[in-house]
Amino acid sequence: MYWEKNVETIKRAKLEDLQLGRLKETIGRTKKSYYYGKVFKEKKLGISSLRKLKDIQKFPFTNKDDLREHWPYGFIAVPKEELVRMHSSSGTTGRATVVFHTINDIAVWSNLLARCMYMAGMRKSDVFQNMMTYGLFTGGLGFHYGAEKIGALIIPAGAGNSKRQIQLMRDFETTVVHVIPSYALHLSTVFEELKLDPRKDTKVKIAFLGAEPHTEKMRKKIEEIYGYKAFNSYGLSEMNGPGVAFECPEQNGMHIWEDSFLVEIIDPKTLQPVPDGEEGELVMTTLQREGMPLLRYRTKDLTRIIPEPCSCGRTHRRIERIKGRTDDMLILKGVNIYPMQIEKKLMEISGVGTNFLIVLDREGFNDLMTVKVEMDKKYFSGEMKQMETLRKKIVEELKSEILITPKIDLVEPDSIPKGEGKAVRVIDNRKD
Ligand code: ADP
Ligand code: ZN
């Protein structure tokens, strides 16, 4: 059984004791890596710098660039022969980074994922179709090992090949899927093409949506189309991958497994911690990792701690749905805009289909934003008047959210190229 009651409902004071113990062990381990060994020496840091949890603030942050600069082995903290697995990030914001695991690390990670899936309702009797890329990307093997711990029957479908996904789902009566949200929407258009209704023609009752930011509206839309419950799954390769934070049946924020990760939320400008409840950048320290422990890793993901206790009884704090990455932010005519703001509005408008793309151009000194918006198949009749009404509505709604007036190009359903990985939301043609 993967409801680890005594860990998941542990009292705060006891959890903090556990964290402090594990943090000390982690500092002891990190010291052995080339990178932290050097940094600790320079800054005269060590286990003795740590009396209480807050002392973590004496230690420096770790950035994605630090990992890139110490490629490939600069962060490993055990002899190389102890490593059994390498994974990598997707490279969404530049060169991918790599992470290494010992056999224990894989066991801990699998256990965290088993907890997540169990929490959302998956059981041994389920048929689990993992529609994420297997290989270096963490979403494939990560979930696979977790599902195996629960004992479910796994269909390691991997990503893409939509028609085969649907056939597998139907032939083997899949009950749980793991899917990238933008791909779930794309897949729904393939169901339509095949004249199938996912609500009636499949048995899926639970979906894990992860790997990319998505709005509550997008989740609702996916739940509506498929008739299943969709749970938000957050993670990043630097903190193993999926299994960092996950929604419970309340579907209101994601419990972050604090026995394995020490959480801070900081103001990305001042780098100072913000109080619980306030939005900022999520920073995490691994508490159990052996192969490649990381201290105060800056995720660049924006969220906040939900301070209220959760009615499910778990005491690990929740983080709110990720609003976006600090480096996703677009600055247009001096206004800061996140692609998620656009998604949120678009998903509310009936007539809008399953995909969109923001294109930025510069004409002279003027920045221009065009949003290509796919129309809903049911709505797409080609009738000019109806299209003009929809276009105007989208302009108005977006203007109210982002305060500038974008140009809207309505395009045919399923016409914006969609790969099998994370959605590309922005193309920036502006020159610096
Ligand atoms: P990369 O950083 O290159 O995309 P990863 O594959 O490790 O590599 O992806 C981790 C990132 O994906 C996170 O830092 C976050 O920005 C995003 N992400 C993952 N899951 C979610 C989620 N449920 N909601 C929002 N963003 C997510
Ligand atoms: Zn809960």
What gap, in angstroms, lies between the N and C termini?
55 Å
Mean pLDDT: 95
CATH class of the largest domain, please? Alpha Beta
What is the overall number of helices?
Answer: 12
Structural domain count: 2
CATH architecture of the largest domain: 3-Layer(aba) Sandwich
Layout of strands and helices, then pairs:
Elements: H1 5-8, H2 12-30, H3 34-43, H4 64-69, E1 83-88, E2 98-102, H5 103-120, E3 127-130, H6 138-150, E4 153-155, H7 162-171, E5 176-179, H8 181-193, H9 198-201, E6 206-210, H10 216-226, E7 229-236, E8 241-247, E9 254-256, E10 261-266, E11 280-286, E12 297-303, E13 305-306, E14 318-319, E15 324-325, E16 330-332, E17 335-337, H11 339-348, E18 352-363, E19 366-375, H12 384-402, E20 407-411, E21 426-428
Parallel strand pairs: 3-4, 3-5, 5-6, 6-7, 18-21, 19-20
Antiparallel strand pairs: 1-2, 7-8, 8-9, 9-14, 10-11, 11-12, 12-15, 13-14, 16-17, 18-19
Bound molecules: adenosine-5'-diphosphate and zinc ion.
